[in-house]
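Consortium newsletter contribution from the modelling node. Members have asked for a concrete example of what our holo predictions look like. Here is one, prepared for the flavin-adenine dinucleotide complex that several groups have been discussing at recent meetings.
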Amino acid sequence: MNAPAAIAPDAPIFDAKAFRLTDAQSEIIARARNLGQSAFAARAAGYDRDARFPTENYRDLHRAGLLGIAIPKAHGGLGADYQTYALAAAEIGRYCGATALTWNMHVCSTLWSGPLADDLDMDAATRAEHERRRAIHYRRIVEDGAIYSQPFSEGGAAAAGGVAFGTEARPIEGGWRVSGKKIFASLSGHADYYGVLCTEVTEGEKASRRNTLYLAIPAQAEGVSVVGDWDPLGMRGTVSRTLIFKDVFVPEDAALMPRGVYFQAAMRWPHMFLTLSPTYMGLAQAAYDFTVRYLRGEVPGMPPVKRRMYPTKQIAVAQMHVKLEQIKALWFQAVTEACANPSKAQVLRAYAAQYSVMEGANELAALAIRTCGGQAMLKSLPLERIYRDSRCGSLMLPWTAELCLDRTGREALYEAGETDE
Ligand SMILES: Cc1cc2nc3c(=O)[nH]c(=O)nc-3n(C[C@H](O)[C@H](O)[C@H](O)COP(=O)(O)OP(=O)(O)OC[C@H]3O[C@@H](n4cnc5c(N)ncnc54)[C@H](O)[C@@H]3O)c2cc1C
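And here is the predicted structure:
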């Protein structure tokens, strides 16, 4: 009996030679792509259908060392920088959007407390204390496979960066008491630690964004509960339910960043908010890949009917290709130049990249459905899921598609502090 034909490995979205990636970067990115193609792609439909968290994928991510992708090598991680992480996350997004998006929440807890925090100002004692604390979080992830999430959204202007978070942390002996509510909390009920943004408040003091704390609250702590259902249009495997914190005691070592450092990061390291886009870069590539395979009659499980000879379909694929290359070029540049204190042009480019990926992925998926035709949108194939998942990208705060346009227009026309008075 013949052995089943091996599936040809997909080419990287960003070719290592063309995009000047090092061997070390390529190895990490290939690890993500191979896992996505060989394991996550086949499971994605089930997670989507049942709106179920991709627990099996997380076990694989841990085994592959990818839960610690951005953890420094000295702490047992892969030591990936921002660009390497973004490229690896795009590869995961090609095969399972919900896994890539939730993995982003997890990785950011290490990226923000790691390479990003290293770029920010802290006095020596604060940095030493931060170093000691983050080692605790890194060890949990590398050794035990602990999963972290990032519940920031509260349903108002706080997650958009407009006002202080309504979730409050009151300092007490040895830590804080935290109370509040987070909506759209991806990984709720599945993360081991919820990386909560909250406002430190003392009696008589007005809540201020400057006093934002970033605390890893244990999911099992007394006073933490997960409420509400989860039955959305797309990204169903993210399980983004509501979290309630009622007088939860949180010890000092739970701080993922020292006092004042999250606010500093939000001001000085704006690309920290571009990290939701890699998932959607992957979805854009997936919509294009599917279309080419489908029109060539090469989609596994489908009759080998070719549709590539029709001129209107060729034009649509050409349009998709142009759009995909535009998105890729802009996004690659933006994730490559992420740094502390970027120039105004770099910040405007980051907004443009976020907008282009988030809107573009869904435009490509819509064009793919029109071009491939009726059978291609059946639930037995991934395209309709890509279409639904990609629609979610523009809604993600703080850089929703609308807010990217708002900021771009304002910041292009006004210098900091400038008014018309
Ligand atoms: C699949 C999925 C997973 C998610 N996972 C997470 C997660 O893990 N953690 C997390 O924190 N969030 C997550 N989110 C939430 C997401 O980032 C948004 O916060 C969420 O969609 C909020 O919904 P909303 O209806 O309150 O937002 P909106 O009403 O769009 O915005 C909230 C507030 O922001 C301000 N705002 C919005 N648009 C404008 C505008 N154009 N001009 C001026 N002000 C504006 C307003 O004050 C508004 O009330 C997820 C969302 C999705 C779709």
